[in-house]
Predict the 3D structure of the following.
Amino acid sequence: MKRLIVAAGGGGDAVAAAMLHAALYGDEDQAVILTYAWDRLLIDPVPGPRGPDNFTGLHQLTPAVWAVPADARPIAPAGSTLPRLAAELPHTFALIDPHYGAEGITRQLEELISHLSPESIDLLDVGGDILARGDEPTLKSPLADALTLAACCQVNAPVRLLVAGPGLDGELPPDEVRGLLGALVHTFTAKDVEPVGAILEWHPSEATGMLAATARGVRGTCEVRDAGLPIVLTDEGPTVHEVDLDNALARNQLARAVMATETLDEAEAHSREICGHSEIDYERNKAAELKDQQPTDLVPQSVLPRLDEFEAEARRREVTHTTFRHLTEALNLNGSQREDLRQLLISSRPEQYKAPLWRIATNDPEPTT
């Protein structure tokens, strides 16, 4: 038996898809996870998503769909988390190529469905930004989700839309997301996180990291991204809800606008018009800013005092946790130093590591567990 899970926004949605598959269908079941190769700049310094031409060692599943096996490699200077995911998880990871617009993704989906005859098709989004109208001021990365939503609505097969971790991506107000959710499908537990636990030690996704943390019982307020956006971690965090696919499309202006696009440039133009921006433009601008940033020495004598200052300010903001991505930026370190910073802090203050998040120290430190 095979399942097809479409990771709506790529990145951490693919990790969440693996977690969802194990929780809902068990280890004996097989799944193909269709996902973008679209990683943060600290993984892939080239802005935008990667296509098949950016890899070596791909395996062709259909004329338009390529699988990314463990021995595939991105062609420098591009980077990708997909080969490592393929090495550490039992799923088949297939590549969404958005360079031919929503029409191209629809074609890829149709070929894959014909090839696999899957028992079920799930479109999974962590956080719920796939439900955005497009004009929300907090919306940062609508394009990938809009393209997958547009494509899934055009295939001749039933697709179930699932939102995990409502509000955890910080793109829409939690109250707004909550009002759009349908039936509860699953609530993740610490046991459900176990299949992807080792991946969360290195994967940079913040939303999926918080999804896993809430499943492990972490509660509080977590700061994320370069701007330090506060995300409240509640009992809703580990839930997965079904959402009506047609209602999502009726709400999502960008998804409707890109349905007939045949190039990524066309889709980007719609994003600029409807949302006022394109996340690829943001990546282009940030890549230019980071180009000349040089790594600094990571030594406890310099890092830990700066950490203490950051945590003192965070306590005043009533923040309880943060991600290592935000911590790296807050300490004015190069994004490529995120993993080295994580290792340094875990070895120095292991009691504050609430995997995969960092707990802000309190006046009365928690005992090591």
In short: Residues 300-316 form the longest helix (17 residues). Residues 364-369 have pLDDT under 50 and may be disordered.
